[in-house]
Amino acid sequence: MEFFQEPIHYQNAALCLKVWQFTSIPRLQPAPMQDISWHYHKEVEFLSIQQGVHEIATPNRTYTLKAGDVMVIGSSQLHRGRVIGPDPLVYIVFHVDLEPYFDPAMMRYYRWFSEVLQPLEELNYIFEEDAATRAEVARIVESIHAEVLGEAKGYEIAASMHIKHLLLTLLRGDTRGLLQAHERVDAYALKPIVEYVDRHLAEKLDMEQAARQAGMSYHYFSRYFKRAMGASFTDYVNRKRIAKAERLLATSGRSIAEVASEVGIGNMAHFYELFKRFNGCTPKQYARSLKAEKGD
Predict the structure, then answer these.
(1) Which uninterrupted H or E stretch holds 278?
(2) pTM (2 decimals)?
(3) How far apart, in whole angstroms, are the C-alpha atoms of residue 203 and residue 163?
(4) What are phi and psi of 140, to 5 degrees?
(5) How many whole angstroms separate alpha carbon 49 and alpha carbon 29?
C-alpha cells in the first residue's frame, strides 16, 4: 500500500493556507478505492462539496459526501478519495496550518485543535448531526475561497476572520464536548517540545530530556506539561508513537515487530498493551482489518 506526503503550496505565506475549487469528471469505471494511494499533509483540510459525490477514506472509516456536505481531515491524517456516480464532482479544498491562529484568545483551546488528545476527524459527527452547523461551515469555506481568489483590499484580514469564525463554529457545534477550554498556558513554549518529540520518537525519550529542551526543572515541567496538554508527558509520547504505528501499519507493509521498533517501543508486550489501550484492538486485529478493506 503506497502513500505520499502531499506538499501544500500556500497562496499567501502569511496566512498559511491554500484554498481551491476542483472539478473532477467521473470515469466510466471508477478506480477501486484500494488502488488509490494514501496521502497526508501537516495542514488541516476542510472539504466542501458543491456538486456530485465524493468518497473519502481514512484508515478508520469511509465517508460518502454529497452536495452540501463538509468534512474535516486532521493534520497528517492519511486519506484518499475518488469520484463516484455519473455526475462531475465540484468541491472546494481548504488547507490551513491552524497554529498561527492561536492568539491569546485561542490559547485555552490549543491542546484540542492541536490533536494531542484525539484527531480532528472525530469532529465530523457535528456535520452529520447538525445541518445548520454543516451549512455554516460550508458557507465559511466558500467565503475564504472567494476572499483569497478575489484579493480585494484587506482580504488577508477577512480570511483571518473567517478562519476564526470557522473554529468558533466548531466549538459551539460540538455538543459532545470534544473541544473544551482549559487553563490559560503559553502554548508557544510547548512548540519546541512537541517538535523534539516528533523528531525522536524512535529513540528513548524521557521527561528529563524534554524538561531541558524547555529550559525548566523536571518537576515544574511535569506539572506544566500536563496542565497545558491535558495528558502526562509519558502518555503524550505513547499516543504519538501509537499514532505513527497506525500509519505505518496502514501504509508501509512492515511487520508488527518492525513497526514497534520504528516507533521506539522495543517490548512487544508493551506495544500490544498500548496499541489496544488507544485503539480498542490489537495490532494484529488492526492489520487484519486493513487487509480486509483492501480485499486481500
Answers:
(1) helix 268-279
(2) 0.72
(3) 37
(4) -65, -45
(5) 21
